[in-house]
Amino acid sequence: MTDLMTDKHGRTMRKLRVSLLDACNFRCTYCMPASATFSKIHDLLMPDEIGLIVSNLTKLGIEEVRLTGGEPTLRAELVEITERLSELPLKSLGLTTNGLLLKKFLPELKKTNLKSLNISLDSVNRDNFKALARFDGLVEVVDAIDAAIEAGFKVKINTVLMKQNLSELDGLLEFARTRGIEIRFLELMKIGVALETFEETFIPAAQIIHQLRNQHKMKQVAVSVDSTAFKYQLDNGLQVGFIASESMPFCGSCSRLRLDSKGSLRSCLMQENKLNLRGLSFDEYPSVVKQVISLKPYDRIEKLEQPMYQIGG
Ligand code: SAM
Ligand code: SF4
Questions:
Q1: How many domains, the chain?
Q2: Which domain holds residue 141?
Q3: Would you call 190 helix, strand, or coil by DSSP?
């Protein structure tokens, strides 16, 4: 089915982000307004619908799935959804989370095929964490990271490095190094509320790399051609990734589709046009999916007013 999944630029769609809901228990200043409103729970895809849609997309060529949101650990059915997806022939199943409620799910998740946990951590300083997330959750998040490592998950830290937490670069690197896990620095994207402060707060990946080169010997690590991140190994053994969506966009090799929490499929985070898959029979999938893929931008769309948490980050 790769013909159907391959667009006119030769990009083959094989990765899927699945948003489980738009709600969150944090209010990260660059992601959400302080008073956000969320979808009603009964409007969201149910676990059996998520299982069916992802199964159908798997038949068309999707190989890797990552659950996200909003905050996916707020879905009471997280384990049930993960169990359903674990029955599919996926090469990889992962979860992106802020970590606050993660720990209690770990024993059940460990029994599924979900192996990869990307945990967001923008600060290792309690006050700064609280200011950025608008929630005093550092202790719980660190506890969950340590428990996930201990349980044998493949854990990566995702950090949006901005003016507000640039001074924490060394502390964040040390946090990851002492735990033997990879840290990835995401550039702030021109999406949603981040548009309001982007110019004052944005830090390009090149600036961080320059700072790291002054302190370390670094060698580039090979990544897959459709990886959104590029990676370095530091002389202290730490692996550091960069997702430079703004300064070095990777649209030309992007292989990702996105399913939102109500069943609409998008070709790109920045592409507002989407098509519904909820309630469709499998026969209807090829034409809808093909249409969605034809909407995938080849050049980076500059900005998006709609916030990331509503689409699935
Ligand atoms: N709530 C979960 C979390 O925070 O990991 C999953 C959803 S969140 C939208 C996914 C990722 O998107 C997080 O790592 C977050 O830091 C990032 N993110 C949100 N808004 C962003 C923005 N404007 N630019 C760059 N990354 C952003
Ligand atoms: Fe919530 Fe994640 Fe957005 Fe922070 S980045 S407000 S944790 S959805």
A1: 1
A2: 2-310
A3: coil
CATH assignment of the domain containing 13 = 3.20.20.70
Does the pTM exceed 0.70? Answer: yes
Is the minimum distance from the CB of 73 to ligand 1 under 6 angstroms?
Answer: no
Residues 6+ apart with CB under 8 A from 106: 144, 147, 148, 151, 153
Closest to 108 (Cα-Cα) out of 157, 50, 52, 151: 151
Residue of 251, 256, 12, 26 lying closest to 129 (CA atoms): 26
Question: How far, in Å, is the centroid of ligand 1 from the Cα of 22?
Answer: 12
For the segment 126-162, what is each residue's pLDDT rounded down to a tens digit? 999 999 999 999 999 999 999 999 999 999 999 999 9
Residue 187 CA: which ligand 1 atom is closest?
Answer: 25
Per-residue pLDDT tens digits for 289-309: 999 999 999 989 888 888 889
